[in-house]
Amino acid sequence: MITSNSNEAAVSGAFRVDVGRGQRIGRVSSEWFSRPDDERYLNLSALYDSVRARADRATARTVESRAVRVEASRDDAERLSLFVPGQEAPISPTHWSFGQLCGLVGAPSSYLRQLPAPLAGINLQYGLSSHRAELVKTLETEDGRTELRAVTGPDYGRIWDHELVSAVMRFAGNGTGDTRWKVPGALDWASMTHNPFADITKETTTLYASDRDVFLFLVDDTHPIEAGKLADGSPDLYFRGFYCWNSEVGSKSLGIASFYLRAVCQNRNLWGVEGFEEITIRHSKFAAQRFAHEAAPALTNFAESSPAPFVAGISAARTRIVARTDENRDEFLRKRGFSKPETAKIIDTVLAEEGRPPESLFDFVQGITALARGKAHQDARLDLEAKAKRLLEQAA
After folding, report:
1. What's the CA gap between 261 and 253, in Å, rounded?
2. Residue 314: what pLDDT?
3. Regions in the chain scoring below 50 on pLDDT
4. For residue 49, how far is the Cα from the chain centroid?
5. What is the pLDDT of residue 380?
6. Cα 10 from chain centre
7. Torsions phi, psi of 106, nearest 5?
8. Quick one: which of 257, 256, 240 has its CA closest to 182?
9. Cα separation of 176 and 167, whole Å?
10. Which residue in 283, 65, 285, 62 sits closest to 155, CA to CA?
């Protein structure tokens, strides 16, 4: 699919970036660091086939909790089996679904895991028989044996992992460069350039799926956008990116984050992020409808949108002069809730990076985000980043 800003020329090699500006976001790096090889996929087709196949083997049903029978497994006395109405074969709970089941009936899963299976089964059976909600929704998968992948409340609104992947594939193709949207390249710290054409391997991929979730991160890094100049007169280049996630078994909500960024390093940290926006959808009763009417269109709209409003906002912030004297600068920041030490650090940061004190709205935004990057505590960092975002929005 060709996006509406397709007139931008694609680059043929690496381009210089300034990662000292904007935010650093580590969410993708955390995913990259924690995923084993069998959760990493090299393209969207392989990812989709995997999560679709397990959905095709799955059966969801709503049953009375007191009708669920818990026994020590006939094949392994150290494991529990469940017998669910409508299913003749015993069902083996996964580690995740056992924890969910314990949570629904108010039993401490960490304690029950330490008990012999027969004793744990007695405790869990009692909890199910006295479960006040009466109904539970199960998700069972047949793969040689019947496995209980999830157990939730009856109003759980399941969004299948393959539905999210399919929504991304509609505009991103295979995620490998057959469209504008692809697994990102990597930042070369020595030359401070971002290379969009790094090979996609198990080490570099940003397409993940486990038995509990999916996570995808794609960028349009072959079409960087110039949104002004750096202090030395070279172009300040950004490109678009987004990541999204879901869990059809209830381990997390569905979410989408879209943004502009300047580089992705080999550890998959996002550098120089601007314009970060995020939406989440809880798996409540009408979650599937909200995904169809809100989340999926939001993904497509971002993928096909023009960067012109973003560029215009940055340009307006660069040209909007809000302080010309030291007194103006102090007053501007103090009125917006910054302490005296924070005010001094913001001004000094801009002076060090730009070779002059802050004057424009954009100068102050960059100084605030630089201060945020140095905060060890996430709450303090997010508070500063929110202030910077509000300032930038004033220029729109």
Report:
1. 24
2. 80
3. 1-6
4. 21
5. 81
6. 26
7. 75, 25
8. 240
9. 16
10. 285
Please check whether residue 222 is in contact with residue 214, taking contact to mean a CB–CB distance below 8 angstroms.
no
Residue 367 · residue 391 · CB < 8 Å: no
Residues in the chain: 396
CA 208 – CA 180 distance, rounded (Å): 20
Alpha helical stretches, state H, the chain: 27-34, 44-56, 95-105, 109-114, 117-129, 161-172, 287-290, 296-304, 308-319, 326-334, 340-354, 361-373, 378-393
Q: Of 201, 164, 174, 196, nearest to 55 (Cα)?
A: 164
pLDDT, tens digit, 9 for 90 and up, residues 35-57: 999 999 999 999 999 999 999 99
Which pair of tokens denotes residue 314? 């940055």
Distance, CA of 188 to chain centre:
24
Q: How far apart are CA 388 and CA 336, in angstroms?
A: 10
Crossing angle for the helix pair 340-354 and 361-373, nearest 10 degrees? 110
The tens digit of pLDDT for each residue in 252-262 reads 999 999 999 99
Q: How many CB atoms lie within 10 A of CB 145?
A: 12
Distance CA 389, CA 396 (A): 11
pTM for the model stands at 0.83
User: CB-hemisphere CA count at 13 Å for 374?
Assistant: 11
The rounded distance, in Å, linking the Cα atoms of 180 and 218 is 10
Quote the pLDDT of residue 75.
Answer: 65
The stretches of 173-291 forming alpha helices (DSSP H) are 287-290
Q: Give ∠ CA 385-390-394 in degrees, rounded to 5.
A: 145
Which residue, among 335, 341, 393, 343, has the nearest Cα to 368 in the 3D structure?
A: 343
Neighbours of 309 (CB within 10 A): 11
Number of CB atoms found within 10 A of residue 6's CB: 12
CB 364 within 8 A of CB 372: no
The dihedral of CA 211, 214, 215, 216: what is its sign? Answer: positive
DSSP 94: P
Q: How far apart are CA 12 and CA 74, in angstroms?
A: 62
Query: What was the pLDDT predicted at 7?
Result: 54
- Say what the pLDDT of residue 366 is: 85
Residue 45 corresponds to which tokens in the numbers above?
A: 């087709």
- Signed CA dihedral, 302, 304, 307, 309: sign only: negative
| Chain position carrying tokens 């940290």 | 269
